[in-house]
Write a structure and sequence with these properties.
Shape: globular
CATH superfamily of the largest domain: Jelly Rolls
CATH class of the largest domain: Mainly Beta
Keywords: Signal
Strand order of the largest sheet: 1-2-10-5-8
Strand content: 35-45%
CATH architecture of the largest domain: Sandwich
Domain Cupin type-2: 65-137
InterPro entries: Cupin_2, RmlC-like_jellyroll, RmlC_Cupin_sf
Protein name: Cupin domain-containing protein
Helix content: 10-25%
Signal peptide: 1-28
Distance between the termini: 76 Å
Order of helices and strands: HEEEEEEEEEEE
């Protein structure tokens, strides 16, 4: 008789353990979605090197792969104390510069941002697929790569 009742006694504990795992997993997924909304951009370094042309002494090329979450939008106004080139690897992005209307760039296209121009929008218009952009900075050593605009 003990063998027949033991599985029944452990069933509630097993069920509660399973329930806690699925609840934790669901919470993790929820947190990841919340993080994407609060920080829709992520960056992975690609390559950096000093430039060798004597006329470009103290300048470097620094690149990273920026991923814009599906439907992600960043509206923090900022400037880069560098020349910036962006090559769209996958998807589409909308870029807003100098308070102008945003321009949309698709995979295979490239955009350019002049040094210190106001950048106020990066947006992925696709709600289901991330966009990937290869970002290339040409920057002088000691200059800030990113400066947030304060109002």
């Amino acid at each position: 008789m003990f063998l027949k009742t033991a599985p029944l006694k452990t069933l509630p504990a097993s069920f509660l353990f399973f329930l806690s795992l699925t609840t934790g997993f669901a919470q993790h997924q929820h947190d990841a979605k919340a993080e994407q909304k609060s920080n829709p951009l992520s960056f992975a370094p690609v390559f950096a090197t000093m430039l060798t042309d004597p006329e470009l002494k103290d300048y470097k090329m620094d690149s990273s792969l920026m991923t814009v979450a599906p439907g992600g939008q960043d509206t923090v106004a900022h400037r880069h104390d560098a020349e910036l080139f962006g090559y769209i690897v996958e998807g589409k992005v909308e870029i807003g510069l100098d308070k102008g209307a945003p321009k949309t760039y698709s995979a295979g296209q490239m955009f350019y941002e002049k040094r210190k121009i106001m950048h106020s929008l990066t947006r992925n218009p696709d709600p289901s697929t991330p966009a990937k952009v290869l970002i290339i900075f040409i920057i002088k050593n000691g200059r800030p790569g990113y400066t947030k605009e304060y109002k």
